[in-house]
Amino acid sequence: MVSVGEGTGDPTPRRNVLPGAGPTPSWGRVLATTIKLSVAWRLRALRRPAPSRWRLAALVLILALVAVVVVRLTGTSPPAARTPAAGPAPAGGTGSAGHDGTSSMAAARSQAAAWVAAQVSGDAIVACYPDMCAALQAQGVSAGRLMPLRSGAASPLGASVLVTSPSVRGQLADEDAPALVASFGSGGTRIEVRAVEPGGAAYQSALRADLAVRRSAGSELARNWHIHFTTQEVAQLRAGEVDSRLLATLAALASQYSFRVTAFGDASPGAQVLLRGVTITSAARGNKAVGLAAPLALVRAQNPPYLPAHATIVGQAVLTIEFAAPSPLGLLTPVLTAEPQRAAAVAGALPLGWAQTR
């Protein structure tokens, strides 16, 4: 991929100047020189009779008044008293707030790039505009994963996520990237990370179908006696708020182990998304606590899309599992719609690897 970065405009064209000629003098300097010469010429006439002197004084006063009026009309003042003209306010701010707007934009861009580098799958293609592509590369996202978009009308189809930019708003974001995954900043500095999906009626239909399947599988999983949930987690399962990959993982683990789920979670600021992270502790079996090394090994042995982005044991009694963004649709739909009688099996004792053999 070609190197990306912010473009620069053509240099400001210079005025044509005659050979040997200096820069064009300002109106203020022309007026000052005119008054100076006029006054000097008139002062030499002070030796004239008194009536002429009065006429001279009146003429000098009139010239001075004319000079003041012209200076005010042309906006010209002597260099020592001139106030620097305010340049155009940078994007994202106006007037004295321009610097703050620029800082806010840079901060939002940096936060979005860091989040994508940490939370989006390492093999996902990221569609971005030049300024965001540069920020993503600065955060370690390889150039080979980036799909540069040169205009707001460019389609992000073919990428997994689209990162918008304050400088270029994607006109097709709602059509080609309808799902908000995360957002950073606000107003004119807002940057959004969106999942690229064909939008419109087909997307809404897929969204409703996936929600129904997650609710069904989550309700079955909440009744599995190998897993202990809190009241809040049961409500989240029944509401379909848990990522399909996480549901399948918990069901598979429950087929071999007993454990306690202490919390579901996500790491997507500024957006309401599916819960794609979980923290679990081992449950005691008799008088002996069951270790977490074997469940961790089983989770790490999976293939995408059921291979989590992060899975590790914290201390000696806590296992954390987190899947990458965005959450895919339709992973459970083929099984539950083709064979409704297997709904309980999917949520209760689904072996890991079922997706590769179905």
Structure commentary:
This protein has helices at residues 27-43, 50-74, 98-119, 130-138, 173-176, 201-222, 231-238, 244-254, 293-300, 333-338, 343-349, 354-357; strands at 126-128, 146-148, 161-163, 179-184, 191-195, 227-228, 259-265, 277-282, 284-285, 288-289, 310-314, 318-322. The chain is an alpha/beta fold. The chain folds into three domains: 27-81, no CATH class; 95-195; 202-357, no CATH class. Strand 11 and strand 12 form a beta hairpin. The protein has a five-stranded mixed beta sheet. Residues 1-28, 68-97 and 335-358 have low confidence and may be disordered. It starts with 26 loop residues before the first helix and ends with a helix. Helix 3 crosses helix 4 and helix 6 (201-222) crosses helix 11 (343-349). It is 40% helix and 14% strand.
